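Appendix B: a complete holo record

For completeness, this appendix reproduces one full record from the ligand-bound portion of the collection. The bound molecule is zinc ion. The inputs are the chain sequence and the ligand SMILES; the output is the full three-dimensional arrangement of the complex, encoded as structure tokens. No fields have been trimmed.
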Amino acid sequence: VDGARAGRNLWVYANESHIAGSPQDFVLAQFTAEQMRAAGIPQVEIQNFSVLLSYPLTRLAAVVAPAGAEYTAVLEEAAVAVDPTSSKPAPPLFHGYSGNGDATGDLVYANYGAIEDYQYLDSMGVNLTGKVVICRYGGIYRGNKVFQAEARGAAAVIIYSDPYDMTEPGEPVYPAGPWATNTTAQRGSVWLGNGDPLTPGLPSISSTPRITMQQAYDPSFSYGTPLPSIPSLPMSYGDAQHFIEALGGPVAPSDWQGGFNFTYRIGPGPVRARVAVTMNYTNATIHNVIGTVPGALEPDRLVLLGNHRDAWAFGAVDPNSGTAALLEVAHGLGRALATGWQPRRTIVLCSWDAEEYATVGSAEYVELREKTLFSQAVAYLNVDISVTGCPVLDPGGVPSFTQLFRQITPLLAAPPGCPASNASAPQRTLYDLWMLDAELDASGAPVLDASDMGTGSDYGAFLQHAGVPAMDIRFESEDGHYEAVYHSSEFAASARARSLSISAALTLSSLLPAVYDSYYYISHFGDLPGFPFIASLAQLWGLTALRLADSPLIPLHFTEYPQLLTGYVTSIAAAAQAANLTLNLSSLNDALSSFSAACAELETAIQQVGSTSDPLLLRRLNDRIMSVERGLLFLQGLPGREWYRHVVWATSQFDGYGSVGFSPILDAVRAGDASGAQYYVALTATIVYQAVDTIAAPF
Ligand SMILES: [Zn+2]
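The structure of the chain with zinc ion bound, as generated:
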């Protein structure tokens, strides 16, 4: 790997804005394919899908009353002289898949727009019908903020970047520092679904029937993820201050107070706000680039690596720091292939398109190849962002990767120039950088978990829909806790109580989908000169892939999985008790006991087989290893949102980023639905027994 080359490629990706479906998006697909071919990847193809995307035509947000408070929002990020791309053309601030409409109503402040925030408004008797809701970014996926507002009859939603979450007192804003300026705001999708909205569950190829736009707004045709029908817009704190300042009504609770120097009130009114959005909903062609290195001995077993390429604007950090790393992995594989090496299993390099809209490219790929992935996929290794900052290594993933990660991270040196940390332990290897902010098990060893692996990136379709073991790797800054917050499934207020630096984390996460996510930004606030962290991430990504592709026995292990799941049951019991909900978890505990025994037996079989070369014995054991994740799928899909099949990691219906751990049960608990929770306990137990059946030795 070569950090300098990674930096040059990153510059190519981030020099022009490249939203999905745009001409520049296709230029970069071709560039990616050329680079993979030049690196020596033997098979490279561009895979096209025709999908529904949406682009903004008109946007308006204004305070229309009371008299004297009238204000029209700017809704534009100011150009910054030192950042050359900030003055280049880019799509304006908008929400992907926003509804069309022109709504005027009394304004209501809804904190972070989490389910608990809306429940609080419900308990205060605040009727949202016809209201304009304003809530702040942070904590959860923005689409859930809009969904809950629409479900309560709101006419429009504004999601703004609050100074509390987006700045650090006394520290400079961009470009002097990484914090948000008074024009910074966050683009993003507000739809809860995955893939093309017009082909739910099916690939968007020419033979596939499309549902109508009308049906896309209907939960029964969209598997419970209808397109939002109300308009919504993102907004900077510079604009939002004019909306919130004059709100009346009750004083908002203390943890709803943000960073403006006035007391936040809930409303409704006397501020009346107008939000008008016209979107061009249109069919666009998107382009996945797929590079394949065929396996020598087991070509029918697939190790997949993926990163998305599309960005709302310039995307230097999200996603093209990852794209630059993907090309470094391609170069590494090409070098090895040139020496005559071939992997045992097939390695697939995927550059996805239209991730920002709804993980569209990867979801369509998974829906196209679903049956093949069921039988052939070993693992999916995602890198959405390779570096938001340094030096903390933040891997997330299903627990079967934990031991592999413990084995290989000590083998890789920390990037040269890695900044010293406050932590007492020296950081010589990537293991040390992982330990800076790792969750630890009872023995003090770091663990991976998938609780932030909802559908916030392209691992979603692989894990949630096809049951492929998935992980996601990135570097972040020490004050950032970026992953813990940006993809947090937790209600933001509780996360804030837990973390001292949540504001820093929210700031970084919120800066990224802005035009300031630029080559200048990553050069100054992301990586070090020469991009050693992107290079280091490529090494780790490549080595993980090689172990999975070349080890005769697939190096996934199942000691941590039952431990983690048992812990989640304890959390659910506590949550139910806190909510005064009676919940009997004994059937799930019994099922998990069987799951633990089956995993232990599989581990014993793995140890006993040692270094056998008996191909049939290896294939039998590898089949059992591959069956664990698939075994946890409810193939018919979760009731009412059938695209989601994984009973453990299904994305929370209250947060598109989070998967919590037994989310269906926990969601019902959070909604106060005792019988629903009990139903999901029984359903989950039954699926866990199915997993046990697939893991168990045949005789
Ligand atoms: Zn991304």
